[in-house]
Amino acid sequence: YAKRIGGDRIEIFKPAMRARKTDRLTMESELRRAIERQEIKVLFQPIVRLEDRAIAGFEALSRWDHPKMGRLSPAEFISIAEEIGLIVDLGLFVLDHTAKQLARWQAELPRGHEPVFASVNVSSRQLLRHDLIQDLRGVLSRTPITRGSLKLEITESLVMENPEHAAQMLTRIKELGAGLSLDDFGTGHSSLAYLQRFPFDTIKIDQSFVRTTSRGTRPVILRSIIALAHDLGMEVVAEGAETDSDAVELYQMGCEYAQGFAFGEPMTSDEALDLLIEKPARPRTLKIASE
Ligand code: C2E
Ligand code: MG
Ligand code: MG
Ligand code: MG
Prior knowledge:
Layout: E1 2-5, E2 9-12, H1 15-34, E3 40-49, E4 54-66, E5 70-72, H2 74-83, H3 87-108, E6 117-121, H4 124-128, H5 131-142, E7 150-155, H6 156-161, H7 163-176, E8 179-185, H8 192-195, E9 202-205, H9 207-210, H10 221-231, E10 235-238, H11 244-252, E11 257-258, H12 269-278
Helix pairs in contact: 3-5, 5-7
The structure holds ligand C2E and magnesium ion (3 copies).
């Protein structure tokens, strides 16, 4: 398996390595065709309002239904899409598809409900390129949805990669009328006080801060993050709520929303609509004092 290149360079190929390299190249070309072949599926995971457990919105999460390998998770193809520059097309597909589903849900939901929202993950290559603004403008102008109900999720580490550029992009995104969620908060070693300079309206606390530790207690920092977010004027979504006691304790700490297996796994757009009709978010009930 040794191959002589030129005079003195020798490259050794082990069969396994070669196989992996071919797999990777095959996967790249298959991924390039996956969108037009309708193999990319967008699922929606409910985000629940803890006050009454009503469905407030959904996060769009991509899957790739590979013809031979079966259903692949984003961990298995998003980074490939980023590396080969396909994330721009993939991202636009997810954004456009999600906006269309959101418009459908909003149209089907009877009047007198809080407008449902949908949030879409944005990756670093997308945020670096200015086409994101054009793409978003296009999607918002051709899709009839309530202003602010389509949100972009940007991770804390992505903002910290290039804070100045991120700040410019986020301001423009906000001006176009999209919402902004700070995703995976707590994993990127920055502070909320610093991130407050960016126009986020929601923070999503990473699941590692939400669930109980091995000693059965909540991470002490959880309560402080929620309180600080509120002081800074942001609403809070807790990620990875898996049990009812997660949900109860998060509500007691003042967290507005939660997402996790306790409330539903990622589902199809039709299933999302059924759930929404079953548990729509009514406007908060006014408590009229009796004295
Ligand atoms: P994320 O944005 O933090 O999404 C939440 C992840 O947590 C999802 O994984 C979801 O299925 C999972 N999750 C939700 N509830 C629970 C729970 O109760 N317990 C546990 N253990 N996990 C839970 P998923 O779908 O595999 O997505 C992983 C990541 O891939 C996402 O993390 C997001 O960063 C990225 N991603 C997904 N779809 C897209 C996309 O269309 N574009 C881009 N750029 N990234 C995407
Ligand atoms: Mg997310
Ligand atoms: Mg997240
Ligand atoms: Mg996360």
